[in-house]
Design a protein that fits this description.
By secondary structure, this protein is α+β, with helices and mostly antiparallel strands. The chain is 21% helix and 30% strand. It has a 10-stranded mixed beta sheet with strand order 19-10-11-13-9-14-17-16-15-20. It has an 8-stranded mixed beta sheet with strand order 2-3-4-1-5-8-7-6, covered by helices on one side. It is globular and about 60 Å long.
Length: 380
Amino acid sequence: MSHTPVDRADLQTPHRDLHSELGGLRGEHPGRARNPVVKVADLAWLEFEKPDLDRAEVFARDFGFAVAARTERELWLRGTFAGDPCMVIRQGPASRFLGPAFRAAERADLDRLARATGSDVRDADAPGGGQAVTLLDPSGFPVRVVHGAEQLPALPGQQPLILNTGTGGRTNATQRPPREPSRIQRLGHVVLETRVFMRALDWYLDTLGMIVSDFLFLDGQRGRGPTMAFIRCDQGSRPVDHHTLALHLGPGTGYVHSAYQVTDLDAIAAGGEYLAERGYRRSWGIGRHIQGSQLFDYWRDPDRFMLEHFADGDLFSRDLEPGWAPMSASGLAQWGPPVTRDFLGASPSPAKLREVLTALRGDNELDPARLLGLMKAMSS
C-alpha cells in the first residue's frame, strides 16, 4: 500500500486550528532560542511581601491553600500535590510582588547560569533547603532559579466528581459537591506586565530556555511584532502546561495574576461560592479561555492581588510551534460572562494616568500607536 506524502506546512493540527488562522509568517519571532543557557523544568513558587501575615493566611485557607510552614516573618503556602510549595509571603511594610522562582532541571544548571550571568550560587531561603541563583530580568524582577530543596509529600486532595455524560456515569447516586474551599493542587502560571516586552521575552527564552505556545498581536500592527506571549517550559516530548509564564506589553511593570490548579469545574464553582459567602470579590468568571483552554475563575485577595482557580488546561510538548492571533478582550474566552474592567486593569485612576505618562516618556517599547492599539484591543 502506498501513501501520499503529507507536506508538514499543510498539516492542520488541533492547536493550529484553534489558536491561529495562519500560524507564524516568514521572518516572525520563532518563539524559542537556538542555544539557551539552561532549560528550567517548571515554575517553583512565587514570592510576595505583605504587612499582615495573619490576614494573608485567612485568605489563603479560604482560597484553598494549605500551610507548608509559618514563622514570625514568613508564610509558605502549598497545594495537595507532592513537590514544591506554591508561594511564600514575607512580612514587610507594603504589599508587593517580589518575583518568581523557577526549578532547575539539574544542579549543574545553577553553575551554568552563574557563569553566564556573573551571579553566585547560594543557599536557598526555603523550607527543605536547596540552592539558588538570583537573576534580574529586563523588567527589573528578581528571578530565582532553585534546585535541591526537599520535596513536600502529597496531601489528601479533592476527588473529581463522576459525571453522567449520556453514555454512562452514576447510577442510584446523587451529586452534592460540598460547599468548601477549592483545594489547590499546584501552582500553574504567573502573568506579568512589562514596558520592555520583547527584551523580557527574549531574556526568558535565551536564559531559561522557555518556549512560546501562543503570540498575540495588535490589530493592524502585526508587522511590529507581538505584544503578548504565553510561554511554557521545554521538557521535550513530555507534555507541560500551555503556559507557565505569560508576558504582555503595557504601561506598567508588575504582577497581573497567578493561577492555581484545582480538580474540576465543580471545585471551581463550589469554591467560588465559598469565597463569595465570605465577602471576597470575584474579578471575572466562571468561563473557559481560548489560549490554554483553562476553565477559570478570578478573585481578588484583601491586598487586591488577583488569583485564579483553573482546571482542564492544555498540555503541549515541544513539537508544537507558536500560534498567532489578534489581541482582543472578546478573544480571552470561549464562553463565560463579559470580561470585566477590573480584570483588564482598565478602570481609570490618577495612578493609572501617571503610569501611562511615565511609560510614554521613558525609554521602552510603549509609544502612542502601541498604547492606542492596546486600548482598542481591550474594548473589542
